[in-house]
Amino acid sequence: MENKSERLLSLDFFRGLTMFLLVAESVYLFPLLMTPELEGTPLYFIGKQLHHQEWAGLHFWDLVQPFFMFIVGVAMPFSFSRRTSQGHTRRQLTLHVLKRSFLLLFLGWALYCIGPGKITFQFQNVLAQLSVTYLIAYLIMRKAPWVQILVSVLLIGLTEALYRLFWVPGFTNPFTPGESFGAGFNILISGFEVVDHWAMFNAIPTAAHTIWGVLVGQLLISSKPWQKKIRIMVIAGVVALAIGYSLTPLTPIIKRIATSTFVFVSGGWTLLAMALFYWIIDVLKFRKILFFNIVGMNPLFIYLFASVGGSSLIRTIVKPFSYGLFSWAGTWTADLITGLTVLFLLWYICFWLYKKKIFIRI
After folding, report:
1. CA 239 to CA 170: how far, in whole Å?
2. What are the extents of the domains in the chain?
3. What pTM does this model have?
4. pLDDT tens digits, residue range 91-118?
């Protein structure tokens, strides 16, 4: 049994790996893997998995947002336990959660306004979605595990019912791009349907990911032996996958509108990933892969920094040198070296903050 005061390194690793992947997307590395010259090669397959599925189906990249929302849930029992031990009252914890939810919603909304330079009401990104799922998970986290599971399933069921039964005029095809309840809800809030059909309503069914994360956090902070913890996570993951994949003949797996099958399947893979990382890092004590933990210590900072132009700024500085030194090897190689250099510098910013013990929290 691990010491409860000991930091859960597998959680830091999972969070850091997830954020590292999101940051890697911002430096334009992934499109390089899908150039026509690479078609049919393993690199092209990897590049395809690092892009969202266009509609029905599942790519690895579709799991990244569920990863992050689940990770936040896992961290909640540890965070609130620490705050409670420091003397925080339930009222103070609730105020903290409300403040954090508001800031996440505000930052998520603000990112949509920076690009076009005008106010627009969109809430599809991970920060805006997380503001809702975080609050829902907090409100029920003191309930018994079966109650939390029931609420998560009801949220998924509610969404399935809305897509199938509550048709908005003109949006009567539940699983067709731009013709579903999610598209109608987008228009109701934003006044338009986004080109890639991401639904703002996704925050309701994907609250299950954060709720399941809370349950795993409560499991990991408990005094149960590590064997039982891993067994519970693996069984839960397999059950979620079985439910999700068995229902695909009725409801397709669609990440962009967070169908019930997508929530179950992505949740299942996330649970299995957490079990694997916990076993390798916290049980076997294999610590040679903790490169990503540095990013996991300042996840929201590096995400926001990269999203508001930090990656582009560093790329602008690096590109003349990388092209000057490696243009002889071809544009593709020069772009690859540029992207890798920018990615390393973003990681180094996190490393510098870590060494200075600067941890930017919301």
Report:
1. 36
2. 9-355
3. 0.90
4. 999 999 999 999 988 888 887 777 666 6
